[in-house]
Amino acid sequence: MIIDVHSHYVPRGWPDLGWPLGPRLRVDSEREATIMVGDQEFRRIQDDCWNPARRLEQMDADKVDVQVVSPTPVFFAYDRPAMQAAGICRVFNDLALDICTDPRLVPFCQVPLQDADLACAELDRAMAAGHRGVEIGNHVGDQDLDAEGVVQFLQHCAEVGAPVFVHPWDMPDGPRLDRWMARWLVGMPAETHLSVLAMILGGVFDRLPDSLRICFAHGGGSFAFWLGRLENAWHRRSDVIGVSEFPPSHYVNRFSVDSVVFDERALRLLVDVMGEDQVMLGSDFPYPLGESPVGTVIHKAEFLSSTAQAKVLGGNAQRFLALEPSPA
User: What class of enzyme is it (predicted)?
Assistant: First the structure.
């Protein structure tokens, strides 16, 4: 079974909720729309964002059996009052179920992460309605994943068995980052790396049970490349580096990463550092910076044994999603 754990959706029926300067959907034609943030174009999208038939057609072309379908992060609403954000999440999550009527499409919900109690309540509601997991942003304002409310929510995810997909969002901007798509090319990897560090050095993994299933997008950002530097800092400057009980390398089996790194050499490093059990196929479908055809780097990676390749293509995701093993 080939499982893509990283794709996004935008419901075509997204209503205008009167959210000043917030994202809205401008429908341009039957097959095209534009995500607007205030009066600015954020991203032009096609109907593969909301049309399940188009999505399944592309999955068939790429020989993908199952696809996890997660929100587009610009709609998270973490900057809104918590009750308003909870209402936005309910609308978004319910519309997602209209897209994911086919069992090959596995919906992940979003939650008002700025309020732990409301986030837990919406997760429970969405899971009862048919969602199979949750996508969260890598931070809420200046609070990272070691913030007390986020830890409370992750504890709840572990208790109810909800897999968590962490996606970077709301990257810093400025003259140096507002050209060449640098917010996506530099900011996203850095944001993800920072949040992995927050969970390790902030002692989050020491507080959460091993049963938490959590995956970081885009290969975990730059974490794998800089683990050695992090390890060195932990040993040499333990007085300032953090509160984790063990060195950073101790925690690499506590989380997974997807494979959206686009280069066999980068994938080799990722598997070497994380282990073949902690890397899962991801594509970032249907957006332009995603991998197409899906799984190209994994299929071409000569360093992967057949067993390792089967794990990365789908076996690890079956465990992450708690799916039944596929027939022989």
Answer: lyase
Residue 112 DSSP label = -
Decide if 308 contacts 77 (C-beta within 8 A). no
Of 95, 52, 258, nearest to 165 by C-alpha is: 258
Domain 3-10+50-321 has CATH 3.20.20.140: yes
Alpha-carbon separation of residue 140 from 89, 171, 190, 195, 303 (angstroms): 15, 11, 16, 11, 38
Q: What is the pLDDT of residues 237-287, one digit of tens each?
A: 888 887 899 999 999 999 999 999 999 999 999 999 999 999 999 999 998
Those residues whose C-beta lies under 8 Å from the C-beta of residue 281, and which sit 6 or more positions away, are 2, 3, 4, 5, 258, 259, 294, 295, 298, 312, 313, 314, 317
Q: How far apart are CA 212 and CA 160, in angstroms?
A: 10
- How large is the average pLDDT for residues 13-18? 75
Q: How far apart are CA 275 and CA 251, in angstroms?
A: 12
Cβ–Cβ < 8 Å for 43, 68 = no
Chain Cα centroid distance, residue 25: 22
End-to-end CA distance of the chain: 10
Query: 7 CB contacts (<8 Å, ≥6 apart)?
Result: 55, 67, 68, 69, 70, 282, 283, 284, 285, 286, 290
CA dihedral over 138, 65, 312, 301, signed as positive or negative = negative
Which sequence spans correspond to the domains of the chain?
3-10+50-321
Q: Which residues contact 60 (CB under 8 A, 6 or more apart)?
A: none
Amino acid type, 305? S
Q: Which candidate, 273, 269, 248, 270, places its Cα nearest to that of 258?
A: 270
